[in-house]
Every structure is written in structure tokens, then in C-alpha cells.
Write a structure and sequence with these properties.
alpha+beta, Glutaredoxin, 4-stranded mixed sheet, 4 strands, 18% strand
Length: 125
């Protein structure tokens, strides 16, 4: 059985990372690194954080339901790859689900997405 690729394009919560070795060690030893990350994440609006949380629950459900049949790839809409996917698949709203690089579903209706995945599993398109 062929594995189906489901790419999810959505804006993700991100933080700046302190990559300087010396700075990272100093901030880490002072306990500031975790506080900095937490402060960055808390700057996002509440509805955006809720959407990311809801989407992560969806990913878990899809993974559990389809197990070995589906490979899930989450792509940050703000990344270069995310931008390319938006142009390539004409995605202007989020979350966007691209199934096997052919069909695109945009929205929050779990049943519609499941129907597209089931259709691909049963080779209906």
C-alpha cells in the first residue's frame, strides 16, 4: 500500500533562538533562555495560539486514524518553502492541506479533509 503525503501549510508560533555559543551558555546558566522563549510565544494573539493548538490536535487525530497510510509534513507558512507552497497551490487562507501534491483543502472541516484522504486511499482520483 502506498503512503499518502499530507502537507499542512499554516503559520506556526516561532521564537528567536540565541545561537551564539557564549550567549547561549550564559543565558542558559542564568535561566533566561526559557523565559525568553516563553515571552516570545506569549506575544502572539490568543486566537492564533488556539488555532495552532487545535491544528496540532488534528494532526494527532489524522496520525492515529490513518497510522501507516499517511505521512504528515507540517510546513510553516512564513518559511520560504511555505511561501512556495502558497504560490504553487494557490493557498491564500490557512490551514491548507495538500494531499499527495494534487488536491488542496483549506479550512477547518475535519470530515471534508478525511473524505479527500479516503478518496486518495481508495484511488478515486
Amino acid at each position: 500500500m502506498k503512503t499518502i503525503l499530507v502537507e499542512i501549510v499554516a503559520p506556526m508560533l516561532s521564537t528567536s533562538e540565541m545561537n551564539c555559543r557564549g550567549c547561549g551558555l550564559i543565558f542558559g546558566s542564568l535561566g533566561l533562555r526559557g523565559k525568553y522563549r516563553s515571552a516570545c510565544v506569549n506575544e502572539y494573539p490568543g486566537d492564533w495560539k488556539e488555532a495552532v493548538d487545535y491544528l496540532s490536535r488534528w494532526v494527532k487525530q489524522i496520525s492515529h486514524l490513518y497510522r501507516h497510510r499517511v505521512k504528515i509534513r507540517v510546513i510553516d507558512a512564513q518559511s520560504p518553502l511555505g511561501f512556495w507552497k502558497q504560490i504553487r497551490h494557490r493557498v491564500f487562507r490557512f490551514p491548507a492541506f495538500i494531499v499527495d501534491r494534487k488536491k488542496t483543502y483549506i479550512g477547518w472541516d475535519y470530515q471534508d479533509l478525511e473524505a479527500i484522504i479516503d478518496g486518495r486511499i481508495h484511488n478515486e482520483w
